[in-house]
Amino acid sequence: MEDRVRFALEKLLNVANGDTGQGRRVANFILAWWNAGEHGGFDLTDLANVDSEVAEDMATWLAREEDLHYPHDYRGEIEQIIARWRPQAETA
Q: pTM for this one?
């Protein structure tokens, strides 16, 4: 994973752990990408409801140059987001 993409993802993971409306929106974005069938989709209008820097990080993640792959190195962080925002869902 390119450094710029990794940095954007790490910033998004930090925001998603916050107890704010922006944190909820970023969590929805991450969890829709992780497993939309299990955790729900992402409303694209939410891009207008996050800080511009956060929206840029989302765009960086979406526009990365390499093929889509799951960053298994961040599975623990994503499972924490699932536990926080989707406590009824299984993490696996």
A: 0.86
**Cβ contact 17:87 at 8 Å:** no
Residue 20, in any domain of the structure: yes
37-65 pLDDT tens trace: 889 899 999 989 999 999 999 999 888 87
Measured torsion, CA atoms of residues 64, 66, 68, 73, in degrees rounded to the nearest 10: -90
Q: Are 58 and 49 in contact (CB under 8 A)?
A: no
3-class secondary structure, 59: helix
> In degrees, to the nearest 5, what angle opens at C-alpha 75 toward C-alphas 20 and 40?
55
Domain residues for the domain of 15 are 3-85
Q: How many domains does the chain have?
A: 1
Say which amino acid occupies 6.
R
